[in-house]
Amino acid sequence: MTLDTLRADARTEPYRRGTRGYTRITLALFAAGLATFISMYSAQALLPALADGFGVGPATAALAVSATTGVLALVIVPASALSERFGRTRVMVVSAVASCAIGLLLPLSPSIEVLIAGRAVQGATLAGVPAVAMAYLAEEVHGHDLGAAMGRYVAGTTIGGLVGRLIPATVLDLASWRWAMEAAAVTALAFAVITARAVPASRRFRPQPVGPRVLTANLLEHLRDPRLRILFGLGFLLMGGFVSAYNFLGFRLLCDPFDLPESVVGLVFLIYLAGTVTSSVAGRLADRIGRSRVLLASIGCAMVGLACTLAASLPWVLAGMLVFTGGFFAAHSVASGWVGLLATRHRAEASALYLFAYYLGSSVAGAGAGIAYGAGRWPAAVGYVAILLAAGFGLATWMARLGRASTAAGALR
Q1: Which of 174, 231, 280, 326 could pair covalently with 274 via S-S, beta carbons 3.0-4.6 A apart?
Q2: Do 271 and 413 sit in the same domain of this protein?
């Protein structure tokens, strides 16, 4: 073997923790998560102001959020297919920058209809980052360090979700909703620029043909794998439970026996920081002691935390939500990273299927929680979420059994 061949092989070796390439790739994906989720959720904190500013009801104003996430879910699979043809980094960078550019224009919307339409378009452009990020990491990072790398990306999404809510809510005390939304867009753009400058070019990616027939075949290949089906189901259940709890937590804290002011209730989103820590820790633990163990423990923690919120004590409710949030993000970090390990081919489509189920759970299961809350207030909502988590725990247990039965379990756990 020649010296040139050895150098070429070294250039295509997966990134290992401690190397400059690993630092760059995790920084770039961390910033991408921030940019994406700031853009995705910046309108949520502004819904009352949008309703007042345009003279519409809360349900109409809420479309400024649901239009983004709904279209994003629909576009994730096509975006993953584009990355198979044009490359992972190109799709991610174009997606991040284009979505931020649209975000800069949204505050100029003359009507709520234009704003909602613009948010829908922004959702379509946002899809490129979550659709590709997991596949890109799985291709470029060594399997023994993938959990930690995926944990950093998920940590970026948690902080992005938090910052995307806090920045506009803070600016709204000083200026109109238009300036508040613009401030969030400028912040997202700054992180998108970091992503574009820091992200390493793909070294292990090989372009694949793209077409409806090929795409369908790739998707069916993943759906035939029972382990991937379980992980897709987990994404649906976990995200559905998480969104359901946070959708109605504010109602819980505004009413008896707490009667907190709305400004204080808004600070509850700081609990998201628990997910920033646990997603990274869970990723590292999964690499060391096994994904099944960490996944089961994470879902178990979420269930314990959820039960604590039934107490009539504010410290218990907040502590419970802290544990619940940490457990959810830890489980999501492990499950999403596991998808990349199991899908040795067409990883982008596998990641897209997971995220499609993930955001579908947000919309479908989250809507079901409204029925439960209307029937029995917070205890009924907790019971609904508990059923989702229990089903997720059952799927995680099944996954562990399949892993033990597989001859490749040692490499994947």
Answers
A1: 326
A2: yes
The total of structural domains in the chain comes to 2
Residue 279's domain comprises 211-413
Helix (H, G, I), strand (E, B) or coil at 66: helix
Structure tokens at 153: 């990306």
Q: For the domain that residue 388 is a member of, what is the CATH number? A: 1.20.1250.20
Concatenating the DSSP letter of every residue in 181-201 gives HHHHHHHHHHHHHHHHHHPPP
Closest CA to 232 of 366, 384, 66, 396: 396
The total of other beta-carbon atoms located within 10 Å of residue 375's CB is: 11
Q: What angle do CA 55, 184, 273 make, to 5 degrees?
A: 110
Measuring CA to CA, how many Å separate 221 from each of 41, 251, 342? 33, 43, 12
Q: Tell me: pLDDT of 394 over 90.
A: yes
CA 103 to chain CA centroid, nearest Å: 19
User: How far is residue 173's CA from residue 145's CA, in Å, rounded to a whole number?
Assistant: 43
Closest C-alpha to 326, from 374, 370, 273 = 273
* Higher pLDDT among residues 175 and 248, named by residue: 175
The pLDDT confidence band at residue 222, using thresholds 50, 70 and 90, is confident
- What is the chain's Cα-based Rg? 21
Alpha-carbon distance of 258 to 246, in angstroms, equals 16
